Amino acid sequence: MMVLNVKHLTKTYPSGVTAVDDISFQLEAGHCLGIVGESGSGKSTLARLLLALERPDRGEVFLEGVPLYTMRREALRLKRQHIQAVFQDPHASLNPSLTVMTSVLEPLDNFPHAVPSFLKPVSHDRRKLAAALLHMVGLGEDILDRYPHQLSGGQKQRVAIARGISINPKIVVCDEPTASLDVSVQAQVLNLLKSLQEELGMAYVFISHDLAAVRFMCDRVIVMKAGRIVDQCAAGALFKSERHPYTRQLLAASS
Ligand SMILES: Nc1ncnc2c1ncn2[C@@H]1O[C@H](COP(=O)(O)OP(=O)(O)OP(=O)(O)O)[C@@H](O)[C@H]1O
């Protein structure tokens, strides 16, 4: 089943830069689509469009067949629960004045009917619910009452991931999810994202500079340059010599 169908997405900023220029692709349930490209190629703008944090000038995103941008506000709010995000900087995406427990439970507080089956046994108890989510991302309940500044970068990103999966979304948009982490922690977070995907069957849009991470995580890859798709292939074919010259340039820059 197709969970995401992106058609002719185009976004020009008031500065005149067309950050996303006629982008179309599809994403199947449970699959991982990589988006790569140099800095400024439009990856983050595309992520924000998919999350309906920004509106395109042209084009549409169909989430399970339903057009995202033409939905009414309340319908959009309900549909939004199926697409969650994990951003590059977990410190910026976690509210510094909220405890881990409050942050992790935020989506469930907004969508109380979206408690996934794996959390049903503990859904009557907020503390147990938050602890179960932390457990899924390899964290102990000892951090439930801590604030973001009391956590390591890796722990913060795990908390952000726990929040992202808490309502069992169909799609998670991961925008450079390991870029702000120590190299030693990056592989652990990638392994976590991959095993959660296998366990929960979510589809990922995985945006990264790290082409080895993309090959590890993804089924297919789209290569963006100046807002356009210039190459696309199976993730395993990314490192093959017959790729588009721009893709080869990215490979050379990242090795
Ligand atoms: N809010 C904004 N207002 C105006 N221009 C913007 C805005 N956000 C991004 N841009 C411009 O749009 C283009 C694409 O930026 P975007 O951040 O989407 O690229 P990116 O591929 O994610 O880059 P990076 O890898 O550095 O995060 C760039 O030229 C950028 O300067």
UniProtKB/TrEMBL annotation:
Xref: PROSITE patterns: ABC_TRANSPORTER_1 (PS00211), ABC_TRANSPORTER_2 (PS50893)
A Pfam family that the UniProt record links to this protein: ABC_tran
UniProt xrefs under InterPro entries: AAA+_ATPase, ABC_transp_ATP-bind, ABC_transporter-like_ATP-bd, ABC_transporter-like_CS, P-loop_NTPase
Superkingdom: Bacteria
Annotated GO MF terms: ATP binding
ABC transporter domain mapped to chain residues: 4-251
Gene3D superfamilies assigned to the protein according to its UniProt record, in alphabetical order: P-loop containing nucleotide triphosphate hydrolases
Keywords: ATP-binding, Nucleotide-binding, Transport
Family: Belongs to the ABC transporter superfamily.
PANTHER family per UniProt: D,D-DIPEPTIDE TRANSPORT ATP-BINDING PROTEIN DDPF-RELATED (PTHR43776:SF7), TRANSPORT ATP-BINDING PROTEIN (PTHR43776)
Protein name stated in the entry: Peptide/nickel transport system ATP-binding protein
Organism: Caldalkalibacillus uzonensis
